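Hi R.,

Here's the chain you asked about this morning:
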Amino acid sequence: MVTSSFTKNFILDNKKTVDSFSKIISTPAESVKIHRTLTLPKRVRQGEIRLKQILSR
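And the predicted structure, written out as tokens:
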């Protein structure tokens, strides 16, 4: 993970932490694509029924 080299105090005290921080800053955030067919009311209801079946076992 990129942030594993940071301390809790957020001190960039060596080359590894500086490089890691630079990578985070220079990389744009990726947007999450949502498949709209998965959020249709019919699909939501099917998911609820399936989840109830799984949990009732």
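Residues 12 and 49 are 50 Å apart (CA to CA).

Let me know if you need anything else.
M.
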